């Protein structure tokens, strides 16, 4: 699992196989954890070394896969304690593309002219070529 946010949170996560408040939790490879928190009725992303210094929450009981709005609290470098950021949580491996809604497709399926992601995020209409991580349209 990866989270796309340049912050103190880990980038890669793995399933912990531990239930926290009735939901599976996830551990970052260095210092973060992601779990369901009954207190906020949503998912909490926090640093294990200092859980109250920097943390983020998102509402809802569904697993937080895909792009979602998260409220980040306690960013140590700012006077304002709350900002909203879009985080993308997914369980794709390095040979897969992360669809915006959270599902995974193989890298070969991205920009292949077929709609493989339920939200169409891996495709564009028209002739396409892949440059970096994006599909680009060119006139036919």
Structural write-up:
The chain has strands at residues 2-3, 13-20, 23-28, 32-37, 42-47, 55-59, 66-73, 82-90, 96-98, 104-106, 127-131, 134-138. It has 140 residues and is an all-beta fold. It has two domains: 2-90, no CATH class; 97-138, no CATH class. An eight-stranded antiparallel sheet has the order 1-8-7-6-5-4-3-2, with no helix packed on it. A two-stranded antiparallel ribbon has the order 9-10. Strands 11-12 form a two-stranded antiparallel sheet. A hairpin with a 3-residue loop joins strand 3 and strand 4 (32-37). The relative contact order is 0.12.
Our measurement of the CA-to-CA distance between the termini, rounded to an integer number of angstroms, reads: 37 Å
Specify the structural class.
mainly beta
Task: Compute the CA-based radius of gyration.
Answer: 17 Å
Query: What is the quaternary state of this protein?
Result: single chain
Lateral arrangement of strands in the main beta sheet:
1-8-7-6-5-4-3-2
Strand content: over 45%
Mean pLDDT: 76
* Low-confidence spans: 1-6, 125-130
Please give the count of helices. Answer: 0
Main β sheet profile: 8 strands, antiparallel
Number of domains: 2
Please estimate the helix content. under 10%
What is the 3D shape? Answer: elongated
SSE order: EEEEEEEEEEEE
Number of strands: 12
Brief description of this entry?
The chain is mainly β and 140 residues long. The chain has two domains: 2-90, no CATH class; 97-138, no CATH class. The protein has strands spanning 2-3, 13-20, 23-28, 32-37, 42-47, 55-59, 66-73, 82-90, 96-98, 104-106, 127-131, 134-138.
